[in-house]
Design brief:
The protein has about 260 residues and is α/β, with parallel strands linked by helices. The chain contains 6 helices and 10 strands. Helix content is about 30%, strand content about 30%. The longest helix is centred in the last third of the chain and has 25 residues.
Length: about 260
């Protein structure tokens, strides 16, 4: 199978590229896509093809990179799953650094086309939230929880699912976060790319999975905490990605959108 792996920053890709073989590179302006083969331990043939890229921050950069990535083939195989992973700010007080959030739904918190549409409604989709496929979220949640419980990966905390809000704003203000939480009940985390990637995948009818690791509390200390955390996360980001790859045989590869 062929996974399109996308992150906003190279630190979130971590050492992934170094764990792939037979690399090839495609360039689209300043966007670099690196494709390669991942071999399961002891395997003599590739277990999964991976095409990886980092987009830069924000919804436009993420949507552009996701679109280019979905057009990438590896050894003649098109993308089967678009996987976006990286860090996010916690919107729930019980979420701490290194906890993992997998969104079941995403919303663009800066989308406001009133009075033509209700607040948060995406005009192109005529709905407020983008739902990800249950089968993929459940597979990833179970894979990560099992590895954490067995101490196969270090640092990471609990795994939670729920709503994530995306917007072109780095939230470092407690009052802003509180307002969002009131307007979006059940909000787990905030970030700057996920809903844009999910929208591209939804419209292109490709399965999408988003995995976020909590870096900060989206409060007044968020900027410094974020920068400090990112240095540590770079060393562990591959462990999270590798956990999913090690469970690729149980993934719902035959389940597609609208099935």
């Amino acid at each position: 199978m062929h996974i399109g792996l996308l992150c906003a920053m190279p630190e979130e890709i971590g050492s992934t590229i170094g764990n792939l073989q037979n690399l090839s590179e495609t360039n689209w302006g300043d966007l670099k896509i690196i494709s390669g083969e991942w071999y399961e331990s002891g395997a003599k043939s590739p277990s999964v093809y991976i095409s990886a890229a980092w987009s830069g921050w924000g919804k436009v950069s993420a949507a552009r990179a996701a679109t280019r990535l979905l057009g990438q083939s590896c050894r003649g195989r098109e993308i089967d799953l678009l996987l976006f992973t990286g860090v996010a700010g916690a919107a729930k007080p019980d979420l701490k650094q290194w906890d993992i959030v997998l969104p079941t739904e995403l919303v663009q918190h800066d989308m406001d086309a009133r009075p033509l549409f209700q607040k948060y409604v995406i005009p192109a989709l005529k709905k407020e939230k983008i739902a990800l496929m249950d089968q993929w979220v459940e597979w990833a949640t179970a894979s990560l929880q099992d590895s954490i419980a067995k101490n196969l990966i270090e640092h990471f905390g609990k795994v939670e699912t729920g709503l994530i809000a995306t917007g072109d704003k780095f939230i470092a203000d407690k009052s802003v976060l509180e307002n969002l939480s009131r307007e979006l009940p059940g909000l787990c985390a905030v970030e700057m790319e996920g809903a844009a990637v999910a929208q591209v995948a939804f419209q292109e009818k490709v399965p999408c999975l988003i995995v976020r690791v909590i870096s900060d509390g989206a409060d007044n200390s968020a900027a410094q905490v974020f920068n400090d955390f990112l240095k540590d996360y770079e060393k562990s980001s591959w462990n999270l990605i590798e956990t999913l790859l090690n469970n690729h045989k149980e993934a719902p590869w035959n389940t597609k959108p609208n099935d």
